[in-house]
Amino acid sequence: MEQYFVKETIKQGLFEISDKEIYKHVATVLRHRIGDVIYLVDENSELFESTIKNIDAENKLISVETVKSDKPSTEMPIDVTIACSLSKKDKVEWITQKSTELGAKRIVFFNSKYSIMHWKSNVVEKKMLRLQEIAKNAAQQSKRRIIPEVIYLKDISELNKFTEDLKLIAYEESAKDGESSILAQSLNKPHNSVVCVFGPEGGISSDEVTDLESNGFVSIGLGPRIMRAETAPMYFLSVLSYSYELNSK
Amino acid sequence: MEQYFVKETIKQGLFEISDKEIYKHVATVLRHRIGDVIYLVDENSELFESTIKNIDAENKLISVETVKSDKPSTEMPIDVTIACSLSKKDKVEWITQKSTELGAKRIVFFNSKYSIMHWKSNVVEKKMLRLQEIAKNAAQQSKRRIIPEVIYLKDISELNKFTEDLKLIAYEESAKDGESSILAQSLNKPHNSVVCVFGPEGGISSDEVTDLESNGFVSIGLGPRIMRAETAPMYFLSVLSYSYELNSK
To answer: Where is the Ribosomal RNA small subunit methyltransferase E PUA-like domain (chains A, B) (predicted)?
Structure first.
């Protein structure tokens, strides 16, 4: 049963879907009919089982009867932000899609010394709109209750302003030094929010790491194998989910 | 410093690299010179720091002086097999690459009732060669000590013959039922080997699950969000690495 995000607050009862994209998908692509059930998530992250009552083809409106769902939330109990150095278009899109599936709340892309790509200021807005759309679609598909926010930072140093409880850097040099316990130690303590920074293929420069460390970030290793820049955030998010959602402590 | 797999046993001292692909990469692509150092992994998974002593352009041979490396192994302390239903070409290739980066020892693709793709018998060999090549390249890049074996099974029922200590099915219906503790419970016990089965986008049929379960497989949930078919194995491998390589018990 598919799920859509609407921008309004839904109250139990009749609700009119005004989003033309949802109309297109429900009425034209999937050819739903009166009586079919879809799920809607409103601006308050509430999930509603919604039975189609009317399809107005002329005005592209769908009326549904909504009942609040008692399905448990699919959101992680900790707010997770991943911050990745800019990379090629397909990698950035891929990171956005997979991080959404894996439960990230915020997905940050930043410029750094060895970033594979740099975005000119006149393309940033267009790129961010596209990534935000990818996040929305992935959130709908993976049955999230929120759409992760995609953020662009002109410089890695803007991460210093981040205020998460736990601030980490996935640092290849730490992994090479055999650092293998800080992540597990950190996750064994209670936290409400975490951010982890991932460098480009060429790595974060040691100056950049030093600067982040002097602003409360801690460098961690993610195991003995070298992961590509896009694989490491997936590893991190999977581990967060396991620790907070599956691990029976 | 890049790494290559050779098929021979290396003894400390002089070694001649006869693999023409390695020659091409070292001498032509990267233009290494005498005195440069590369790493070689031999058929016994031993790593050798290898200093180039001669490059014979005519016969495409490279001679190196090898010294056994004392770098710790990058292999997981548990043998992990992932078994995925056949999917589109790019997904199958992607799973092979990422699973290699994440430490899988065997990567199995099988036909099942709802598989997105089926391979005709006359294309299997060619496809397997290509996947094995992807695994080799990813293993070199991520500094593995072995190349994961890629295996094709004509039918999901062939998994019944698998003899791993721990046999799991990532089953969407289990996740939907809120099952969230079996994986963590299982990983808290000692195991030498594990296999986990991942269904296609359409899921594994309940008949297929029942058959596997009657052969020692246990169904597990991997958290509350719906993951795409290619994302779930990455989640699993990341969790295995965390449990066995990072978690400070």
So the answer is: 19-62
